[in-house]
Prior knowledge:
Structural class: alpha+beta
Radius of gyration: 22 Å
Strand order of the largest sheet: 3-4-6-5-10-11-9-8-7
Oligomer: single chain
CATH topology of the domain at 43-270: HIT family, subunit A
Number of strands: 13
Strand content: 15-25%
Distance between the termini: 41 Å
Shape: globular
Amino acid sequence: MTNSADQRVDPYLGTVVHVVEGRQARPNLPSTGCPFCVGGLEAPEPYEVHWFPNRWPAMEGDRCEVVLYTPHHDATLWSLGVPGVRKVIDLWADRTTALGRRDDVDFVLVFENRGPQVGATIAHPHGQIYAYDHVPQRPASLLNAGWKPEADCGDRFVTSSTATRNGSAWTACVPEASTFPIALTLAPVEQVPDLASLDDAGREALAEMLVDILHRLDRLYDQPLPYMMWLNQRPTDGQEWPQSWFNIEIVSPWRSAGVARFIAAAEVACGEFFNPVIPEDLARQLRSLAPAPAPAPPLQPGRPDHALPSEVPSRLVADPAPALQLHRDGDTSR
């Protein structure tokens, strides 16, 4: 099929709009079973991870791809564990490199929409990749501003991974001023420009961080959290971009369990936003959901000093964190 795409720019605001008439015919839900399960329309053969061109692309020229994380329909990205997520990361890196080599691709965006609340029409775990012929405005703004992870994000700190011999440590913080009620930024402590530049230890550390953070988010409200996730990488337009610092952003529209925060007219009109969730409270709640400590070694006969404790030591019990609080002015997004 052909997919007519019309890229326009608002003459006053400079906003880029892709008018994609062909996506109007895109099915909202599959009518004959999941196309991403093994044997389905997009996955006729067994696979561990898999990519294919999007049948309903937002841009012409083979610029839109779908990435399947697993053949298991009811899994989530974090439930794949570190080995499974590492396979996804490697595929992301391979496709970033392959698309970035094209002369007509200046920026590769890897992203995921998880849940029908943010537009995912198929529940099977998957993400997407868009290959732009220009560097879009938002990532360009971050690059031009010299974005880098905060050396100390204070009370907005969530967690960090342990540095390996190669220095492959990651950190997770809640942003200072996100437009979304739930927002996190993950970044390597040492500067790496893009996903493909991550070494083996760095990719392993990233897999561990994603499993940890995404699991915490699903436990935040004791149900699967709808989220949007994207990777900010160095452009592939041939320039050096020495300031590029690879990072991942994860956001959710939920301001409480099952309750979405809608962007209101005043926010759209003025480009200023009213977030009802205090970032420091979100970080405190997510810190309290840290993974349980590793179990103690089993009792060894004849070694009473290796006996298991009868109670969990108090130092291993996370301090209870208060529920997320709204600003005292209330939610202005209604």
